[in-house]
Amino acid sequence: NAGVMQNPRHLVRRRGQEARLRCSPMKGHSHVYWYRQLPEEGLKFMVYLQKENIIDESGMPKERFSAEFPKEGPSILRIQQVVRGDSAAYFCASSPLSDNPYGYTFGSGTRLTVV
Amino acid sequence: DAKTTQPNSMESNEEEPVHLPCNHSTISGTDYIHWYRQLPSQGPEYVIHGLTSNVNNRMASLAIAEDRKSSTLILHRATLRDAAVYYCILSVDSNYQLIWGAGTKLIIKP
Fold first, then answer.
1. d(CA A72, nearest CA chain B) in Å
2. Most CB within 10 Å of its CB: which of A10, A43, B43, B51?
3. CA distances from B64 to B21, B28, B50, B100, B109 (A)
4. Cα–Cα distance measured from residue A78 to residue A11, given in angstroms and rounded to the nearest whole number
5. Contacts for A56 with CB less than 8 Å, ≥ 6 apart
6. Average of pLDDT values for B85-94?
7. Cβ-defined contact of B100 to A108 (cutoff 8 Å)
């Protein structure tokens, strides 16, 4: 019974390249959430997706960032033309409910370093 | 935005109870209080949540003040594996758009 799987665990990109972060939710969970964490800070919500739908992207930067959760396969967070300020840990969480007060299951994160 | 205030760090001895405080003086009537913890290099882990009444689960207890302006997470018998950053969080508009602060780093001494 695997938890939320994120890959890669570590990703190094040069400025201007694209970063693709993958998240496979827990079995039976159809709601996926992406968060960003800067060093020594708490998490910041980015986007909430269900299969083939973006439900809430109010935390996503307006440019260069996009997310999808296709009918088949993992959810993808894509960052185009990365800059040094994009260096952070990106966490994905999943839930069986849409607005679940009973806790979200998080993956171990992808640590993006832009050089 | 409703915010929480937590001590930056706390120390406790192994196998003793730990009381982690959190102030949330601007909380509104419908805001849930959530606690998560994050071990080094790991994703956050749900601990407990509550609205008005005290709550217990297998991991911890949550004591909520009568005026709801503060709460305390209680670990009844801390182990070395409980060393983590503990976040006290309010859900304002939704349970996924939680407002995360910097948390309390809990250090457990053997």
1. 24
2. A43
3. 10, 14, 8, 19, 27
4. 13
5. A47, A48, B94, B96, B97
6. 86
7. no
Choose the closest CB to B97 out of A4, A40, A45.
Answer: A45
Closest CA to B46 of A103, A79, A94: A103
**Res. B2 pLDDT band, cuts 50 70 90:** low
Taking alpha carbons only, the member of B97, B61, B73, B92 closest to residue B12 is: B73
Query: A110: distance to nearest CA of chain B, Å?
Result: 10
Q: B-chain residues within 8 Å CB-CB of A56? A: 94, 96-97
Kindly report, residue by residue over A51-93, the tens digit of the pLDDT.
999 999 999 999 999 999 999 999 999 999 999 999 999 999 9
Residues of B in contact with A41 (CB under 8 A): 100, 102
Instruction: Give the count of beta carbons closer than 10 Å to the beta carbon of residue A112.
Output: 21
Q: Which residues of A are less than 8 Å from B97 in CB distance?
A: 45, 56, 58-59
Task: Name the nearest CA neighbour of A103 among A52, A36, A31, A27.
Answer: A31
